[in-house]
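quick one, 105 residues, struct below
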Amino acid sequence: MPWILLVVAALMELVWATALKQSEGFTRFWPTVIGVPVCLLSVVVLTVALRDLPVGTAYAVWVGLGSLGVAVTGIVALGESASAPRVLCLALILVGVIGLKAVEG
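---
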C-alpha cells in the first residue's frame, strides 16, 4: 500500500506542477485553485507513505516520477523538446525509480 500511495502522490505532483505552470505566476485563477491544493495533498499522501518507506527512497521516487511525468506532459502537451539526450535522461530517471523499488521491495 505505501508504494501505491507514493505513486498517487507522484501523479498529483504532475497535476500541480502543470497547473502552476498554467497559472502564469498565480495570475490565472483556475490553474492556481487546482495547483495549490493538489500540491498540499501530494505532500500529505507522501507523508502517509513515509510511515512505511525509507525517506530517501520515498522522496527520490516521488520526485523522480513527478519530474518524469511533468517532463513527458511538457513534451506531449506543451510542445517542449523531445531531443534524444533529453529522452535518454528521462529514461534513466525511470530506471533509477525501478531500481529503488527493486532494492526496497
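The chain has four helices and no strands.
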